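4.2 Preliminary Data

To establish feasibility before requesting continued support, the project team ran the inverse folding procedure on a target of 301 residues. The structure was first converted into the token representation described in Section 3, and no sequence information of any kind was made available to the design step. The complete token record follows.
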């Protein structure tokens, strides 16, 4: 496995991103040593709020949420998935599988020994984060899902189909513009540049490029059975479980219904639809999400 590491200078002076890096060493089953980056802000004695990003973003996505969470006494922990952000990037698409992503993040979660976790997950942050909940339900106190899913071989939207086709055919993957198009407000040039920062050239984008093709949307996809097994755990998960999908996301629209119907902890919760929020609702409504998370934690503590 050939592993690429984005030079540190690519992350200098990013707008609204003063957070120091933290790193965790992973030993992959193939023998490669990987460095996973994460942000860890706020009191270490506080219960962690685990903020998981998706495709093709990184922990920069949470820059406007982290200060608000910390100001309210929470510990905000935001990892970069392998292949994204400041984390190491295997250079071949074949190096990335859904199950390998779950194993990498499982090793990080248990190595950090995070407990009493509040999970906030969006996009692939949910596909991986919910697998962590299913694998380690005792470590999670509550869950908030936003614009995500846990597919088991069916049920994709026309919006996702178009995104899949584009991601696999575009000669260059315009990650900053993709994130901007997934918002209602649109990003500034400097913000878009920050999303491009992890990728000096296309060779660094193997993980971002292949992620859409790994979503198990047909019976023939890998990880269908593993996700079905995860759903069996979630269907017994009775801790507080909140949906906070946005109203302007063609990729995940309506996806909240399956969680509300199948997860016991979702019953009786004050589920919300985030108004004027795109796919990357963390960019459109960060302060509203901080209020939501803080209130949910305090109400269900």
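Position-by-position output of the design step:
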């Amino acid at each position: 496995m050939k592993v690429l590491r984005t030079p540190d200078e690519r992350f200098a002076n990013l707008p609204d991103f003063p957070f120091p890096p933290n790193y965790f060493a992973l030993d992959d089953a193939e023998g490669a040593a990987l460095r996973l980056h994460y942000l860890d802000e706020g009191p270490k004695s506080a219960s962690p709020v685990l903020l998981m990003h998706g495709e093709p973003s990184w922990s920069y996505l949470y820059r406007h949420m982290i200060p608000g969470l910390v100001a309210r006494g929470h510990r905000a922990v935001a990892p970069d998935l392998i292949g994204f952000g400041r984390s190491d990037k295997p250079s071949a698409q074949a190096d990335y599988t859904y199950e390998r992503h779950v194993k990498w993040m499982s090793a990080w979660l248990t190595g950090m020994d995070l407990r009493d976790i509040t999970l906030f997950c969006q996009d692939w942050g949910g596909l991986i984060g919910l697998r962590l909940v299913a694998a380690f339900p005792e470590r999670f106190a509550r869950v908030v899902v936003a614009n995500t899913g846990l597919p088991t071989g069916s049920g994709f939207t026309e919006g996702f189909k178009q995104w899949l086709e584009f991601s696999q055919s575009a000669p260059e993957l315009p990650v900053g513009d993709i994130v901007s198009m997934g918002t209602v407000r649109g990003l500034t040039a400097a913000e878009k540049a920050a999303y491009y920062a992890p990728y000096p050239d296309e060779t660094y984008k193997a993980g971002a490029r292949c992620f859409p093709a790994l979503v198990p949307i047909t019976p023939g996809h890998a990880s269908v059975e593993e996700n079905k097994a995860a759903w069996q755990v979630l269907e017994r998960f009775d801790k507080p479980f909140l949906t906070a999908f946005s109203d302007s996301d063609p990729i995940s629209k309506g996806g909240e219904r399956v969680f509300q119907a199948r997860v016991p902890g979702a019953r009786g919760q004050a589920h919300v639809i985030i108004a004027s929020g795109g796919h990357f609702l963390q960019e459109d409504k960060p302060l509203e999400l901080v209020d939501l998370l803080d209130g949910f934690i305090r109400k269900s503590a």
